Amino acid sequence: MSLHTLRQDWFSNVRNDLLAGLVVALALIPEAIAFSIIAGVDPKVGLYASFSIATLTAFVGGRPGMISAATGAMALVMVTLVKSHGLDYLLAATVLTGVFQILAGWLKLGQLMRFVSRSVVTGFVNALAILIFMAQLPELTNVSWHVYAMTAAGLGIIYGLPYITKAVPSPLVTIVLLTAVSITLGLDIHTVGDMGKLPDSLPAFLIPNVPITLETLLIILPYSVTLMVVGLLESLMTATIVDELTDTRSDKSRECVGQGVANIATGFIGGMAGCAMIGQSVINVKSGGRGRLSTLVAGVVLLILVVFLGDWVKQIPMAALVAVMIMVSIGTFNWGSIKNLRVHPTSSSVVMLATVIVTVATHDLAKGVLTGVLLSGFFFAQKIGRILRITSRTEDDGRARAYEVAGQVFFASAERFTEAFDYKEVLDKVRIDVSRAHFWDITAVSALDKVVLKFRREGTEVEVSGLNEASATMVDKFAVHDKAGTDDMLTGH
Amino acid sequence: MNSDQKILACVDDTPVSDAVTDYAAWAARTLGAPLELLHVLDRHLALAATQDHSGTIGLDAQEKLLDKLISEDETRTRTAREAGRLFLHGLRERALAAGVHTVDTRLRRGDVEETLSEQHAGSRLLVLGKTGPQPGTAEHALGQHLEWVVRSVSRPVLVAAETYREPTRVLFAFDGSGITRKGVEMLAGSTLLKGLPLVLLMAGAPSGAETRQLELAAQTLKAAGIDASPSIVKGAPQQTIVSALSAGGFDLLVMGAYGHSALRSLLMGSKTTGLLKTTQVPTLLLR
Predict the structure, then answer these.
(1) Which fold has domain B6-44+80-159?
(2) DSSP string covering A373-410, please?
């Protein structure tokens, strides 16, 4: 990396980066607390995590200007682990997640992102928004009318204030005002202090208190794998969003490694696993943040604020946080996708909805994404399978028939291929020209075998021509297709 | 040097560009080379101009933000493009009036340093303005920007003064280093300074070998038709050069540039940058 890019990444936008970092830090505090509560750990776990992840990714991340911290997506994954085994296992899982992410970065697994279609991404985002919203519901059930009034007032300020001034972050104003009201009126409502410990000192190095045994590994392994997948998915997705917003490029493999490094360090200072945040990154870009400096400022300011303002943070009513999180979930949800349900092809809509439904039902974003990816592959195969045309004409005064096959023959179209031949016709000879077809897999070849056998059973002589060209696509070594002339080969010989 | 290689002048819409064009025209005339005026539209420096610190994300925040950023960029680039065309045209006229036979213009998008490191191939000399192509932005501190540009290209760079005065007397800051020795050969092989009086200045107390190199350099230049004379002045290089410049009425300084690594100059400060800051004389930087 040259000094030039280093300077470009850090100091090309100093004033705006400082301001945006400040805005982001203020917006990170309620989120970090709320996500800790979702995960079922003390608020300090999320706050330390947000500090350490934001600060480290500023240096080691691959996408300048992207905000990473403790996130809802990751918090949702770890709920059951915390419930059944406690915080220390979560910290161990966080470290292991980091190790996996570094490996993924080295193996360039980020490239697998291209199999995650747009519909799956939309589904992921929508499911995330729904889950964040649902996580707020416990705070809104069986409570006094004060809480509803507070939440409504909070939402009013969050969305109303920007019409008056955009100079101060409205979520922050909401929190300050609602806290002041709750203290002056002496309302008996849930506050952040009721939710667990807040940081009272700078984070210190600690080793998770778990037995180093195979049993421990087996407990944390499934969580770490899911955390790795979810973390990388959201991080790479967010990186793409920031790329798009700022019209610049990012280093995806470096981002994977960066997320890993940040998570390992976070586990060792008592923080929960995190990843990039879509909402916060959008806030950062919106506030003018572009460089690495904005991320660093966000992390450092966050720590300073929570360590020194801990006594005040304790008194924030949960209703204020709920209002902020409702804003986050509304902002994260892709509302255009609802409108698009009618416009987009049914298969895309089904993929999107399936991703949302599976995620919301299982509370596991990784399962939702897997469903979406499999479904989109399935739909794609089905669509491509339709590209198969078989024509025929008689030869030798009706004694022979020449079939010409053009298109894609593979597992999804093999049956259609077999059924396209007329076996009942009385012929001496059948010529099948497959030179303009592509046989993609073993199913295709065996389908051809089946056709040949069926004809032979009827006493018909079969001649297959062009099989070599057709089955060239079956070779798994893609290098062959990369060579010159591949295009001709794939568009018909 | 190949005579069809062009002179590349980096200009923008600041007053210094007039002088840049004039110096580039002078170089093009004396070298008989074509001139290209290059302007870079650097939209990313000004990109993050925003007043929205509300910290809220509403319905479809990401899509709306993207639309907003795109339309902002679009208007900005359009205006910059029109303005760029306009003054490039004006500067082209100016260069033609100064007697250069071929003047080409090029408007490019991107980052200044990146663009130059791509575009300097095929050119023999770069001409830049002293305030740097982006005055008034984060880059206004002289040196940094210029330094990165000079470091990223492997061609000699002529840093223009704020007002143009045709070079008549040349001061060559010679220190016997590889860069300056190569520079002597390059000047001898070119017609840029032909016929001009040139003083080869060596500061400090040179050893015998260095004195011999100085004399050798003077001979080489003389043989090439440059009226060179060696001179040794005691003192620290920077002060010596500055006082010699003002005392001798020189209007062009030639020196080696950035002999040390970027890291070292970041930590210790660079002699080249220091000199560029203090002198009001156009400077030919040898690479």
Answers:
(1) Rossmann fold (3.40.50)
(2) HHHHHHHHHHHHHT-EEEEEEEETTTTEEEEEEEEEES
Amino acid type, A321:
L
Give ∠ CA A386-A389-A394 in degrees, rounded to 5. 155
The model's pTM is 0.77
Min distance B66 CA to chain A CA atoms (Å): 5
Residue A279: burial class (beta carbons within 10 Å; 0-12, 13-18, 19+): buried
* Cα–Cα distance measured from residue A70 to residue A33, given in angstroms and rounded to the nearest whole number: 9
Where are chain B's structural domains? Answer: 6-44+80-159, 170-286
Q: What is the 3-state secondary structure (H, E, C) of A249-298?
A: CCCHHHHHHHHHHHHHHHHHCCCCCCEECHHHHHHHHHCCCCCHHHHHHH
**CB contact (8 A) between residue A27 and residue B55:** yes
- The answer to whether the complex's ipTM is over 0.85 is no
- Report whether A380 contacts A413 (CB < 8 A): no
Q: Which residue has the tokens 């060696």?
A: B230
pLDDT in tens, B32-81: 889 998 888 765 544 556 667 777 888 888 888 888 888 888 887 788 88
Q: Mutual orientation of helices A214-246 and A87-106 as an angle, nearest 10°?
A: 60
Contact residues, B window 82-111, toward A, CB-based 8 Å cutoff:
111
> Where do the domains of chain A lie, and which CATH numbers do they carry?
3-377 (no CATH), 386-490 (3.30.750.24)
User: What CATH class does B170-286 carry?
Assistant: alpha beta
> Which residues in chain B have their CB less than 8 angstroms from residue A19's CB?
53
A368: nearest Cα among A381, A353, A358 = A358
- Residue A226: in which H helix or E strand, if any? helix A214-246
Minimum CA–CA partner of B71 in chain A: A245
Which residues make beta-bridge pairs with B36? B8, B104
